[in-house]
Specification:
Largest sheet: 5 strands, parallel
Distance between the termini: 24 Å
Number of strands: 9
Helix content: 40-55%
CATH topology of the domain at 7-35 and 95-201: Rossmann fold
Strand content: 15-25%
Radius of gyration: 17 Å
Structural class: alpha/beta
Oligomer: single chain
Mean pLDDT: 90
Number of helices: 8
Strand order of the largest sheet: 2-7-1-8-9
Order of helices and strands: EHEEEHEEHEHEHHEHH
Length: 202
């Protein structure tokens, strides 16, 4: 990882507004890039291959696992999700790179890259989460119930994250600003800026 460029993990249950918040963040600053994950799930209406996800077959994904070309991967609601190593390494040369991934994947990243910054994005409460999921109108009641149950399981890792950001209703820009300010502070953390100290011992 290049000095002063951060590998940032943003996780949150389906319906937390990750996509909207990160879109606001990119509009605020040119210092970030979003890593596009690979997945075996089918694209939703309006989603574009290579933009929202790399949509690949289960066989292709398992070949990537076999060849160890993924930073992390996980299964969620019956589908694989993962991050391609080479793409992230290239982007880190010039940007802070954000991985928008599920909790299990985030824990795998944390084990491999202890310096990664982990941010958990949440709606204000459970009722808001359920309302957002049902309001999308893209999933069956069975899938919604599974996602709601999964969100409770994900909170078991709450304290493994460095920061929590609450995405209030109509508050995506404020949540994005929180992430921007967190990143600015983290870049100044002494453990990330040891080269500054070294300049005084030349």
């Amino acid at each position: 990882m290049k000095k002063n460029n951060l590998l940032i993990v943003v996780s949150g249950p389906a319906g937390s507004g990750k996509g909207t918040v990160l879109k606001e963040l990119l509009a605020m600053s040119d210092d970030f890039a979003i890593s596009v994950s690979a997945t075996t799930r089918q694209p939703r209406p309006g989603e574009v291959d290579g933009v929202n996800y790399f949509y690949i077959t289960r066989e292709e994904f398992e070949e990537n696992i076999k060849n160890d070309t993924l930073i992390e991967y996980t299964q969620y609601c019956g589908n694989y999700y993962g991050t391609i190593n080479s793409k992230v390494s290239e982007m880190l040369e010039s940007k802070n790179v954000i991985l928008e991934i599920e909790v299990e994947g985030a824990m795998n990243v944390k084990r491999k890259f202890p310096d990664a910054l982990l941010i958990l994005l949440l709606p204000p409460d459970y009722k808001t989460l359920e309302s957002r999921l049902r309001g999308r109108g893209t999933e069956t009641d069975e899938v919604i119930k599974a996602r709601l149950e999964q969100s409770k399981n994900e909170l078991a890792c709450f304290e493994e994250y460095d920061y929590v950001v609450i995405n209030e209703n109509e508050g995506a820009r404020d949540a994005a600003l929180d992430i921007l300010n967190i990143t600015k502070s983290e870049i100044k953390r002494t453990s990330r800026r040891l080269e500054v100290k070294e300049k005084f011992y030349e």
